[in-house]
Design brief:
- The chain has 240 residues and is an alpha+beta fold.
- It has helices spanning 19-31, 37-44, 48-60, 88-92, 100-129, 142-158, 182-187, 190-203, 230-239, and strands spanning 64-67, 83-86, 163-168, 171-176, 207-211, 220-225.
- It has 2 domains: 22-70 and 80-93, Winged helix-like DNA-binding domain superfamily/Winged helix DNA-binding domain (Arc Repressor Mutant, subunit A, Orthogonal Bundle), CATH 1.10.10.10; 98-225, Muramoyl-pentapeptide Carboxypeptidase, domain 2, CATH 3.30.1380.
- It has a 4-stranded antiparallel β-sheet with strand order 3-4-6-5. A two-stranded antiparallel sheet has the order 1-2.
- Helix 1 crosses helix 3, helix 2 (37-44) packs across helix 3 (48-60) and helix 5 packs parallel to helix 8 (190-203).
- It starts with 18 loop residues before the first helix and ends with a helix.
- 34% of the residues are buried.
């Protein structure tokens, strides 16, 4: 069985003569984050022109979306290649964890306990997701912040969020490429607020939510500021 280099998960059995199966494999890769045509070609051992033909069809059908890279992310020289994301239609093929049942349950929580009960439930849920991760101190180094963000991403991935940590100007970004509760979070923003709260609590540094899947974006992106003195603090610790 073939495995994706990016996600370490098995890809669908591919018949190279079956375009639909190839596009299913591409969609599986995009579920774990945005990719360029060349990156997809490398993952699936296909030519870049062949991948672009499939991507053009997926974009035309509304399954995928082509976008320019985020201006916040670090870039090399030359014109940046377009990134391809799954659209909301594309994500729907992979299902959502709660949807109708969760909406009914959260409505009942709010009816019985009011907004405070809904907030408490949402925050407890997020604490359960990241259980075992220790909050950072104020003097944490960039390496500390990076390590904590990676632990958060791993915890989120276990719950189906397809999360990655990317370098960005002035810090890093936590990018969730799939949200198993996106449709629910649209009606209950307390879920997104609780997620933001737990990220701030664990990372203990200024963060900013740049986009959310629940409100139409391709990813849930949180910018994490790394203090300028973090490198200096790290050097001082090493000399001590």
């Amino acid at each position: 069985m073939r495995y994706s280099k990016r996600s370490a998960q098995p890809l669908p059995q591919m018949n190279r003569n079956t375009a639909l199966t190839t596009r299913e494999a591409i969609a599986r890769l995009l579920l774990h984050g945005p990719l360029t045509a060349s990156a997809i070609a490398e993952e699936l051992s296909l030519t870049i022109p062949a991948v672009r033909r499939h991507l053009d069809i997926m974009v035309e059908e509304g399954v995928a979306v082509a976008v320019d890279p985020s201006p916040y992310q670090e870039r090399g020289r030359g014109r940046p290649a377009k990134l391809f994301h799954l659209s909301d239609v594309g994500r729907s093929h992979f299902g959502h964890a709660y949807d109708d049942l969760a909406v009914d349950a959260l409505r009942m929580v709010r009816k019985l306990g009011g907004e405070r009960a809904l907030v408490d439930f949402s925050q407890q849920h997020m604490h359960d997701v990241v259980a075992g991760i220790t909050p950072l101190d104020r003097d944490a180094t960039r390496a500390d912040v990076q390590e904590c963000a990676e632990k958060i991403a791993q915890a989120f991935n276990k719950c189906g969020y397809a999360t990655s940590v990317e370098n960005a100007r002035g810090g890093i970004q936590i990018c969730q490429h799939h949200c198993p509760v996106a449709h629910v979070a649209h009606d209950f923003p307390a879920l997104c607020a609780a997620e933001h709260h737990i990220l701030s609590e664990l990372l203990n540094t200024p963060i900013q939510r740049l986009s959310t899947i629940a409100y139409g974006a391709h990813t849930c992106t949180t910018n994490v500021t790394v203090p300028h003195n973090s490198i200096q603090n790290h050097a001082e610790r090493s000399e001590a």
